[in-house]
Amino acid sequence: MPKKLGIVITDGVGFRNFILSNFLMEAQATFTEVVIYSCLPKNVYQEFNLDNVKIVELEVYPDTFYTWFFLKLKETAHLQLHKKGNFGIQDSIRINKTFNDSTRGYAKRFIFFFTRFFHSENWIQRFNRWQQYTFKTHPITKGYLTLLQTDAPDFLFFTHQRPPYIAPILYAAEQLKITTGAFIFSWDNLASKGRMAGNFDVYFVWSDLMKQELLQFYSLVRPEQIHVVGTPQFEPYVLERYYSSKTDFFNKFDLDPTLKTICFSCGDVSTSKNDPLYIETIALAIQSGILGNVNLIVRTSPAETPERFLYLKEKFPFIKWNYPKWELSRQGHQETWSQRVPTVGDIMNLRALLAFCDVFVNMCSTMSLDAICFDKPVVNPVFGNSGNELYDDQRFLKYAHYERVVKSGAVAIAKTKEALINAINEALEKPTLRLDKQEKLLKLQVGKSLKDTSVNFIDSIKNIILKI
Asked: Against a cut of 0.90, is the pTM above it?
């Protein structure tokens, strides 16, 4: 099929989902040429087969005040429009308010006031046009126009719909009448996060549930623009090249193969401030014999370095640690976290953890779904609330995407130390207790089989291009 596909790799998560899965391989086999427009440095692709693939490292658009201002107007208006009856969006509004005396602090307070009254879909589209006006004559945007004009992709696919720095290249594609599509990259993005970077022609979602959410929160989007494709995020779990043996796993992390293993996976400090407390609670229960003789391994968040856990490493030397190998590809970017890139070895380690650990503990993260992909029991500790001195993580139970998880009964929710230890013991003794509920939840959240996710995804893109 003599067609050219453009792929905008927005960040390290996009790299994981679309380079480390089979997506790029299937794209190479389907299209005459693939052009990767990379928001990451070009050198991160060196170890991959790039036959008929052109890599273009995009110049980073600067974080200018006026572009930021209209972006925030657009995002905040979106939140104001949809806050009624949605705790997650109300919480996002609350945590984004500021009393800072900087120029942006004053601007944000004006934005929150203004959008209380002006937040219709028409106003949101107006803010989007004003944002585009701030960068349409910028040399970098003009460079994007030249790039796309020269390459002339038949379809421009964005691996993430939200990063603000993709708005200029999306605008360039609009000006050249290039059909665009975006992948809604996470299960919480629609129901609790801000506005997309712009308007796309086509949207790719995980499930029918996500399709319904997209129609709910974006009233100008039509059902025929949305394609349910599953997510390549979990595809590596069914790809043989990421398999490792149980023996290798236990040897690598110095675990006792005769014992059951608890895995605690951390969030980053911005939302999972209580993680050290949860790890310490489990470690003390192991020390005292309440949890019996088990292994405990902790996987820290790839979004941060592990300094806040070092005291636990000294206090409990029996805890094993997995520090995700997501390498920082460059400094000085407006969103530093976006420049962390996962390695093949880290995906193998993650898959081994999921395959060979017995119980998974995390504070309401996507890792709950990862564990369920392997039919493993999940416990979510949430000790903090508005009435105690801990960081209030119980509020996340009221976010729309996680409220469904709680109501499904697929995971155990632990609001106290005693409840956490009891839930872990129950999961160790009865690992299949919630299996039926887990399977139903996974089918609801991930609407397609993990096997051949990329094949089906590329087929959807191919069919879209054929209709252009």
From this structure: yes
